Amino acid sequence: MSGPGVHGEGADSGQASATPPLVAGSRAEVAAARLRLLTDARRRVAIYQPLLPDDVYGTPPELAELRRIATSGRGAEIRLILHAPEEALRDNHRLIALAQRLPSMVLVRAPLEDVDLAYASSYLLTDQGGYLFQPDARRTDGRASTADRATQAPLLQHFNDVWERSARATAWQPLDL
């Protein structure tokens, strides 16, 4: 199985995109797009991030937005799929503290199947139809939009499929002492 494709902004949907695409060609532009999407999200985000470097979902503004989403009330949920959650734990990523304080709102899973572990892309999906897609998570270029559900749909389907096949990342759970 190959990963889901992301068509051009609004392409093949038969409609023009509701909003213009976000620029996501450099590290700074990808970070700005990520923050914009988090700011626009209301209660739910889904994040597929094979590896979790310190500067991805670890900056104070991103963490503030993730905290806001996680504490936004009924239905709040941040779902995160990481290939190696123990590496982020070893590197003491700042997102871990939020996940440990709000374990019922910040849910973390790790893929088990080889086909899922071979998937090299990363993406962020919001409940507002926004997405940021990076074809290669190790590179800084990508495509993004604040509202393009037609382009977001195959990514959301992929996320849900992998989520169901994945195991809870128990390494991130707080210790009850």
Automatic annotation (TrEMBL):
<feature type="domain" description="DUF7931">
    <location>
        <begin position="27"/>
        <end position="171"/>
    </location>
</feature>
<protein>
    <recommendedName>
        <fullName>DUF7931 domain-containing protein</fullName>
    </recommendedName>
</protein>
<dbReference type="Pfam" id="PF25559">
    <property type="entry name" value="DUF7931"/>
</dbReference>
<feature type="region of interest" description="Disordered">
    <location>
        <begin position="1"/>
        <end position="22"/>
    </location>
</feature>
<dbReference type="InterPro" id="IPR057691">
    <property type="entry name" value="DUF7931"/>
</dbReference>
